[in-house]
Write a structure and sequence with these properties.
With 466 residues, this protein is an alpha/beta fold. It has 20 helices and 5 strands. The chain has 3 domains: 129 residues, HUPs (Rossmann fold, 3-Layer(aba) Sandwich); 115 residues, Serine Threonine Protein Phosphatase 5, Tetratricopeptide repeat (Alpha Horseshoe), CATH 1.25.40; 171 residues, DNA Cyclobutane Dipyrimidine Photolyase, subunit A, domain 3 (Orthogonal Bundle), CATH 1.10.579.10. Helix 5 links the parallel strand 4 and strand 5. The longest helix is centred in the middle third of the chain and has 23 residues. The chain is globular.
Length: 466
């Protein structure tokens, strides 16, 4: 063994199995302590004290602590700035090394560099490992050694490189005898770190991830077709669990790869998108500073008003599918993937509001918020990102509604004002005759913009910038 004592720093990897950092620490250390920090440098930026993400993390952390206790250990919980708390904890434990899984966001990279530097002052090693992606940074490059800029060629190269080795789970359970019992502590509560309970319908923790996966496996064959319909049970609903690491990306990619079939292959493609956007952020860190991937679009002066933006945020644009999607986000912290594209396109290309405002709103509301994926998705919708399609792709909110929520089931769930509308009327209620509106006592706003008119304005805006 190389180390007498080590510390595993949990972050976006809240599980006790198939865990790279935990495996390597256990394999090379006589005693291994485990810790999680409720990082004030992150939490202090959250204005909503009933933040669903904090609640989800809290419950996931409690489950992880219980699981580690069953192995004779436990999770040390800290509240403070991780860049100071982790070095201080490592020193107090007498650890010779800190093990952690890599985080690829620029702020996290800077934090980890600061932690490594502080640890080095007392001769404590810092070991980061790949865990939240299958292929990271420079592992999938073009033949001439450059990063890919378009998804499909990247996906093809990703699949060509894939071998069973990359999907093998880390056998953590073989080495749990090295887990050490943590010192006694007054464990911080959710309220003591400044937050309120904010439960969601999504089950948290490793058990929640496992239950969702089991349910999804029964319908994965229908995924390719069902995933586009918000009223259907199509998605896996595992995105938040991937975001916080309550389930291993390797286990999901292995399942999809081995299972095969159109549904599993489509789902694997969605998992590859995560690696793609993570790679893009690594090679283009300026994206974290509000820069467009295509720099020619940085100078666009977006004419959309604050009134438009607020109407979009609150789900009162007069376009039923857009409003239903935004209300779903506000009420649950989740939005169906197709609707993320529809609402983003509407904000940017119908309301002509800067895509960065939408990106920031999603960042504050989404339970599964991940910077690289959120930024990538918004830049894709705004046609400022790494996309092979030209900028004149504009979603029509009415035809999208008619195609993907034909009976209006999803719309009725979140826009109850339209419950009395027929399936023909619900997609464009402003077209109903006045007497029909009066008969059903319609209380719903007319569209704040005309899609056809705004489409032409959007095309001119992009044409002038390109």
């Amino acid at each position: 063994m190389k180390y007498e004592k080590s510390l595993v720093w949990f972050r976006r990897d809240l599980r006790d199995h198939d865990h790279a950092a935990l495996y390597h620490a256990l394999k090379t250390s006589r005693q291994v302590f485990c810790a999680f920090v409720f990082d004030t440098e992150i939490l202090d930026k959250l204005t909503d004290k009933a933040d669903r993400r904090v609640d989800f993390i809290w419950h996931s952390v409690q489950e992880l602590h219980t699981a580690l206790k069953e192995s004779g250990s436990g999770l040390i919980l800290l509240h403070g700035a991780a860049r100071t708390e982790i070095p201080k904890l490592a020193q107090s434990l007498g650890a010779q090394a800190v093990f952690a899984n890599r985080d690829y966001e620029p702020t996290a990279i800077a934090r980890d560099a600061a932690v490594a530097m502080e640890l080095a002052k007392t001769a404590i090693d810092f070991h980061p490992f790949k865990d939240q992606v299958i292929f990271e940074t420079d592992e999938v490059l073009t033949r001439d050694g450059h990063p890919y800029s378009v998804f499909t060629p990247y996906k093809n190269a990703w699949l060509k490189k894939l071998e069973p080795y990359f999907l093998e789970p880390y056998p953590v359970k073989k080495y749990t005898a090295a887990l050490a019992r943590p010192p006694q502590q007054n464990r911080p509560s959710l309220q003591s770190i400044g937050f309120l309970p904010a439960p969601t319908k999504l089950p948290a923790g490793m058990s929640g991830a496992s239950a969702l996966l089991e349910d999804f496996c029964d319908r994965i064959d229908r995924y390719r077709d069902a995933r586009d319909y918000p009223a259907a049970k199509g998605p896996s609903y595992l995105s938040a669990h991937l975001r916080f690491g309550t389930i291993s990306i390797r286990s999901l990619a292995r399942l999809a790869w081995e299972m095969g079939g159109q549904g599993a292959e489509t789902w694997l493609s969605e998992l590859i998108w995560r690696d793609f956007y993570c790679m893009i952020l690594h090679h283009h860190p300026q994206l974290a500073s509000a820069h467009a991937y295509k720099p020619e679009f940085n100078a666009i002066a977006w004419p959309g008003t604050e009134e438009y933006f607020q109407a979009w945020c609150e789900g009162r644009t007069g376009y039923p599918l857009v409003d239903a999607a935004m209300r779903q986000l506000n009420q649950t912290g989740y939005m169906h993937n197709r609707l993320r594209m529809v609402t983003a396109s509407f904000l940017v290309k119908d309301l002509l509001v800067d895509w960065r405002k939408g990106e920031d709103y999603f960042a504050r509301k989404l339970l599964d918020f991940d910077f690289s994926a959120n930024n990538g998705g918004w830049q894709w919708a705004a046609s400022t990102g790494c996309d092979a399609q030209p900028w004149f792709r504009i979603f029509n909110p009415v035809t999208q509604s008619e195609k993907f929520d034909a009976e209006g089931k999803f719309i009725r769930q979140y826009v109850p004002e339209l419950c009395a509308c027929t399936s023909m009327e619900i997609h464009a209620p402003w077209k109903m005759p006045a007497e029909r509106k009066q008969a059903i006592r319609l209380d719903y706003p007319t569209p704040i913009v005309d899609h056809a008119v705004m489409r032409e304005k959007a095309l001119a805006l992009y044409k002038n910038a390109s």
